[in-house]
UniProtKB/TrEMBL annotation:
<dbReference type="InterPro" id="IPR036374">
    <property type="entry name" value="OxRdtase_Mopterin-bd_sf"/>
</dbReference>
<feature type="domain" description="Oxidoreductase molybdopterin-binding">
    <location>
        <begin position="281"/>
        <end position="414"/>
    </location>
</feature>
<feature type="transmembrane region" description="Helical">
    <location>
        <begin position="162"/>
        <end position="180"/>
    </location>
</feature>
<keyword id="KW-1133">Transmembrane helix</keyword>
<dbReference type="InterPro" id="IPR000572">
    <property type="entry name" value="OxRdtase_Mopterin-bd_dom"/>
</dbReference>
<keyword id="KW-0812">Transmembrane</keyword>
<protein>
    <recommendedName>
        <fullName>Oxidoreductase molybdopterin-binding domain-containing protein</fullName>
    </recommendedName>
</protein>
<keyword id="KW-0472">Membrane</keyword>
<feature type="transmembrane region" description="Helical">
    <location>
        <begin position="25"/>
        <end position="51"/>
    </location>
</feature>
<feature type="transmembrane region" description="Helical">
    <location>
        <begin position="131"/>
        <end position="150"/>
    </location>
</feature>
<feature type="transmembrane region" description="Helical">
    <location>
        <begin position="90"/>
        <end position="110"/>
    </location>
</feature>
<dbReference type="Pfam" id="PF00174">
    <property type="entry name" value="Oxidored_molyb"/>
</dbReference>
Length: 417
């Protein structure tokens, strides 16, 4: 028997032996994340604004305590009609695709987690604390985002506040981190090779490197291949057409939509929302209120009003979207005119006959009501709406997130928001 090998704890630099680690690998992964996370942050803020959380009454507001963090809000436009489809498709697809890069980046710096002593000075302690917020924030944002996309809102309602406040904590730590590390990152990218362990000021280069099993280029290739695989199995849910078949990782929605004009993704089925066929039968009436007036309309009466057809997609916060569907029905501004609000109609509060659930009501801004493409849709693709797509009537608004396209509408109150 040979002498017992001495145990090397992870707090010892000798424990970390991969010859791949070094400032250059970390810097390369770092710049990819710098670009990617910046775009994630911007598209995330856009998605937040697209919900119109600042409308009066707080109907759409899942983060009433946002305070100054609501500074970025603006009136979300109604064009181009594919706007939310694009921004949210980018947000979700990019978030998924960056997962291997994030994991590789964390792997590349993991020896630093075990640095001893834990804090050499107050400055060092503060830096490590900010890293806790950085790494914790990154993992939190990616995990909550992926759970929301994959599991159909595991935390309905609260997802928005978790992901929103988490994003601000994370981005604060991220900005500090970038400011501290950018000079060293640029230097590492300029120098073609890593310093040896003795000259290394980053603590990343292995002091006792193991023989290489893969080159650094090979390792980056693996990360890239992982991202590419995730891209082709995710992006199809937003690109549509032939690509939809490649979207193996996309969520499958509340029900099988079947084929025909109503054969597109269903988010929450009628059964799932507790909407029964007898609530939507002959007795169903739409109540339109506003300007001190009230009108009730049956579906037959709605069908006798001027009908318009628009080609618009449904684009969900989860990242999936449909191709443009041919919706037809009554213009929202014509409904406002029915209660006398034909001059510059105001925003509207839309309520579903669904009794409970976070998405049973939504508010639309005046610019959305006024757009001639905004409809109370009665039909899609030349057929009556299916119960799962919102029969007898649902909202469809250009460029808006799917959540504002309320299904099984029962009441519309103009001027309530
Ligand atoms: N009443 C009601 N309307 C609703 C929802 C809901 O749960 N209840 N879900 C919304 C969400 S989040 C989306 S993405 C769209 C999806 O519409 P679809 O199922 O017809 O594709 O409906 C919206 N309208
Ligand atoms: Mo949605």
């Amino acid at each position: 028997m040979g002498a017992a090998r001495r145990f090397t704890p992870p707090t010892s630099p000798a424990f970390w032996r991969s010859p791949l680690r070094g400032p250059r690998l970390t810097a390369l992964l770092g710049v990819v994340l710098l670009a990617g996370i910046t775009l994630l942050f911007v598209t995330g803020l856009l998605s937040y604004a697209a919900y119109n959380p600042d409308l009066a009454g707080g109907v759409n507001d899942k983060t009433p305590g946002k305070g100054l963090l609501g500074f970025s809000l603006f009136a979300w436009p109604t064009g181009p009609h594919w706007l939310y489809r694009l921004t949210q498709g980018v947000h979700v697809t990019l978030g998924v695709v960056l997962v291997p890069v994030l994991l590789a980046k964390l792997w590349s710096v993991i020896p630093k987690l075990f640095t001893m002593p834990p804090a050499r000075s107050i400055g060092h302690a503060l830096e490590r604390l900010s890293l806790l917020l950085l790494v914790g924030g990154a993992l939190f944002e990616f995990v909550t985002g992926l759970l929301n996309v994959q599991l159909d809102y595991v935390f309905p309602g609260s997802f928005y506040s978790l992901h929103f406040y988490g994003a601000w904590v994370f981005i604060g730590a991220f900005v500090v981190h970038v400011a501290l590390k950018l000079p060293r990152t640029v230097q590492a990218l300029r120098e073609r090779t890593d310093p040896d362990a003795a000259a290394d000021d980053t603590g990343l280069v292995a002091v006792r490197p193991a023989p290489p099993t893969v080159s650094r280029r090979g390792a980056l290739g693996l990360v890239g291949a992982g991202s590419l695989l995730l891209f082709v199995t995710t992006a199809g849910q937003s690109i549509g057409g032939w690509w939809r078949r490649t979207a193996l990782l996309a969520p499958h929605g509340g029900a099988d939509p079947g084929s025909g004009p109503n054969g597109f993704q269903i988010n929450k089925s009628a059964a799932g929302a507790g909407v029964r066929a007898r609530d939507t039968g002959e007795d169903w009436q739409l109540m339109v209120e506003g300007g001190g007036r009230r009108v009730r309309l049956s579906r037959a009466e709605l069908l006798r009003l001027p009908q318009y057809e628009v080609a618009l997609p449904i684009a969900c916060v989860e990242g999936w979207s449909t191709e443009d569907q041919r919706w037809s029905g009554v213009r929202l501004r014509d409904l406002a005119a029915l209660v006398g609000l034909d001059e510059a109609p105001p925003g509207v509060l839309v309520e579903s006959l669904q009794l409970s659930g976070a998405f049973r009501r939504a508010a639309l801004r005046d610019n959305q009501v006024r757009d001639p493409r905004s409809l109370l849709a009665l039909r899609v693709g030349g057929a009556d709406l299916s119960l799962d797509h919102g029969y007898p009537a649902r909202i469809i608004v250009p460029a808006a997130p799917g959540v504002l396209n309320t299904k099984w509408v029962a009441r519309m109150t103009f001027g309530a928001v």
